[in-house]
Amino acid sequence: MSSNGVVFVTGGNRGIGLAIAQRFAQDGFKVAISYREQKPADDFYMVKADVTDSKSIDAAIDEIEKNLGPLEVVVINAGTNKDALAMRLEDSDMENIINTNLMGSIRVARRSVKSMIKNRKGRIIFIGSVVGMLGSPGQMVYASTKAGLIGAARSLAREVGSRGVTVNVVAPGYVDTDMTNDLDEARKDMITSSTPLGRTASASEIAGVVRFLASEDASYITGAVIPVDGGLGMGH
Ligand code: NDP
Fold first, then answer.
1. What pLDDT digit, counting tens, does each position of 191-215 carry?
2. Is residue 174 part of a domain?
3. I want to staple 233 with a disulfide (CB 3.0 to 4.6 A). Which of 30, 33, 130, 171 is the partner?
4. 223: alpha, beta or left, given left = phi > 0 and alpha = psi -120 to 50?
């Protein structure tokens, strides 16, 4: 994609999304991010949007396209989690995780693809997770949503490939962000000791791979799941 094109990162106000937005901004793209309450200090185009609300997403993308131009790259990053063992799962938590991670991602993709199809170019990048394929105790719902994104991405890739639009999934392993702050030290040690590279990832290591998928060098990659997990999920 052209390096002055429009990139939209959902949940680009913090964590992995912020690192992705910063990387595209550094490389000269016009970057728009969504946030709910907390804006970052960076100079991005910011839209307030909640991915659980279709109207909010449609309005946010309308606004970005009106002010910056048609979307060329969309990074579907916003996500949430609440660990619980299967027998203790609450309906409200299940619904919120599925509505945010799976339905929310589909809402963003559904709206974003419109102008990409019209312009016959675009890159859609979902942020999945190593646990989508590996599974993880306490993450039955979260892992289901991340596995679901693979089916979503591959279906969409087949729909829009002939229009010059690629759709891929980046599947990070453990990254130090607010989302993983709550894990106890024993669980963190268990994850790093199962990771061949023996450490967690920085958010910028995820951002670099997302940036690659948006580059001309990645023009023939679609429907792929790219692990960025230090080897944690290899073979799955
Ligand atoms: P954070 O908790 O740091 O950030 C989550 C982001 O998602 C925030 O920007 C948040 O916005 C946004 N978000 C959550 N719910 C909604 C919603 N309903 N509508 C709009 N935005 C929402 O998490 P990470 O940066 O770690 O995670 C980013 C993505 O990476 C997620 O999809 C996550 O599943 C995935 N991931 C993370 C891993 C990790 O180890 N950290 C590993 C593998 C995947 P707000 O500030 O408004 O709450």
1. 999 999 999 999 999 999 999 999 9
2. yes
3. 130
4. left
